């Protein structure tokens, strides 16, 4: 969601998916008094669905303590991921998605189960989880590379694909993020070393309209001719669909 005007569409999509998964109807929603929640179209939809809107008073976030507490937890986690990975603030949205992906796959004290298990009815696989900011090597298919071209391109892991079984990889040389399963990770990765500012490095400037920061540091090492044809990391077999 890029702006608040998309809240209504996001809610209707969530409602359909959640009610289908849980075989239960939403009875109440609790929000603040932001216009994105209070406009006529949203309220009319809630009335037609028989959903009660509970709204907090102005400047009293404690009335929605569960949501506010998670917001603080998520924000702290994003700061840690960005700091630990040496990535710039422009990767904050990706760090948030990565955090929630992992949060849903760890046990919490209140239920002693993962949110994934409570939602889907089965335990999640965690074999495919990798550190945010880990060094990744993206395999280049034989059909697409020249005889002198390296078999892989170096990138940085910045999250998990939402619609496919794969990873989101930032390619500094091309200044873009791709989604792929054809990736091998550096098993000797030390958190925060993917783009270490103390290493020999250079900077490339992104376009002014980019969602990322204007300068992204990348190491100046020569990409090694990694082994195999990159049929995929065996650890990625842990990917499982988020549906029953």
UniProtKB/TrEMBL annotation:
Q: Per its record, what are the GO molecular function terms?
A: DNA-directed DNA polymerase activity; endonuclease activity; hydrolase activity; metal ion binding; nucleic acid binding; RNA-directed DNA polymerase activity
Q: Which UniProt keywords apply?
A: DNA integration, DNA recombination, DNA-directed DNA polymerase, Endonuclease, Hydrolase, Magnesium, Metal-binding, Nuclease, Nucleotidyltransferase, RNA-directed DNA polymerase, Transferase
What PROSITE patterns does the record point to?
INTEGRASE
Q: Which GO terms describe its biological process?
A: DNA integration; DNA recombination
Q: Which Pfam families match?
A: SH3_retrovirus
Q: Where is this region: Disordered?
A: 225-244
Reply yes or no: does the keyword tRNA processing apply: no
Q: Can you give the residue ranges of the Integrase catalytic domain? A: 1-123
Q: What is the protein name for this chain?
A: Retrovirus-related Pol polyprotein from transposon TNT 1-94
* Gene it is expressed from: POLX_986
| InterPro entries found in the cross-reference section | Integrase_cat-core (IPR001584), Retrotran_Ty1/copia-like (IPR039537), RNaseH-like_sf (IPR012337), RNaseH_sf (IPR036397), SH3_retrovirus (IPR057670)
